[in-house]
Amino acid sequence: MNINILDTNQLALMDQLISDANTVLVVCHKSPDGDAIGSSLGWAEYMRLRGKDVTVIVPDQYPDFLMWLPNTDKIVRYDKHREKCDMLFKIADLVFCLDFNTPSRVDEMGQALVSSKAKKVLIDHHLNPDVPADLVVSQPEASSTCELVFRIVWQMGAFAQLDKAFAVPVYCGMMTDTGGFTFNSTRPEIFQIISELLTKRIDKDRIYRNVYHNYSEDRIRLMGYVMYEKLVYMPEYHAAYYSLTRDELKRFNYIKGDTEGLVNMPQQIKGLKLSISLREDTEKNIVWVSLRSVDDFPCNLMAEEFFNGGGHLNASGGKVEGTIDEAIEITKKAISAYENKLK
Ligand code: 5GP
Ligand code: MN
């Protein structure tokens, strides 16, 4: 099996760019998930191994269920330390952009990123990359950016010298981006990579528990409330959606991350093809939308067409600038517009 992914030119360029740099930044998308944080922490470990002065910068808060990962205390938040980060973007020699395909995915940090004179490398698995970069490693067929990080590090011959601080976040991101290896993870190389990561004596069962078994009582009751009272099931379309208002979130003492993964739950209904979550922002007049599908139903096209968003075939997101009722109306329209693909 071939783990290598860079062609000869990419490999040489990657090595050259790293060798030429001293100050290195590793950045990922806003509202970072396990793959964004995992790949950033893993890649930063490799940069440390290469003797670089490396900083991981994230646009905003990352979820509580990732706090336990090694070295999260060194992550710098752009929204909290803007001046420091802007300065870092000015002095950096090299910036790695991980797990996003377009500058708008890094929010306000996009300006600092695009105007930085540093060399840039994109490592990502989303479709249609348009981050201006000196080297683009874009592999939409990869399970996760963490998988790409592993494969590059492997190809650069550095894996043997890395330890748990690399293996734990990389495993974590592969796990979260595949729903615990339940989707998008059928290629045999993925399990070859896992078997290599296990040689670093990571405790994969504990990683699973740290991520998935860490709910608050409020969160588990919110899940129950949504499934019992809020889910709208449309069996004729093999679709379901739910909405959550600001007041409902308040009732369950919502904190960021509490609805993470909730949109996957309706997918457990037999035959369901499409699940949509509508969540009112706690302050702004915006409704955040998440879409999940199975097989060949294109969530990303629906997200682009109806929800100012995009994403992967089976997992996409977007937003409605309006009220929750408007978002519900748009959702109904979207579902009926895709009738042919759903029925
Ligand atoms: P989530 O539902 O977890 O917020 O997002 C699922 C996936 O959809 C993300 O991994 C990301 O690829 C994509 N996504 C979410 N929001 C947006 C958006 O506003 N624009 C685009 N292009 N993709 C998004
Ligand atoms: Mn990802």
TrEMBL record:
Pfam families: DHH (PF01368), DHHA1 (PF02272)
Top-level taxon of the source organism: Bacteria
A single MF term (Gene Ontology): nucleic acid binding
InterPro entries named in the record: DDH_dom (IPR001667), DHH_sf (IPR038763), DHHA1_dom (IPR003156), Oligoribo/pAp-PDE_c-di-AMP_PDE (IPR051319)
Domain DHHA1 as annotated: residue spans: 252-335
Domain DDH: 24-174
Protein name listed in UniProt: Phosphoesterase RecJ domain-containing protein
The species this protein was found in: Xylanibacter ruminicola
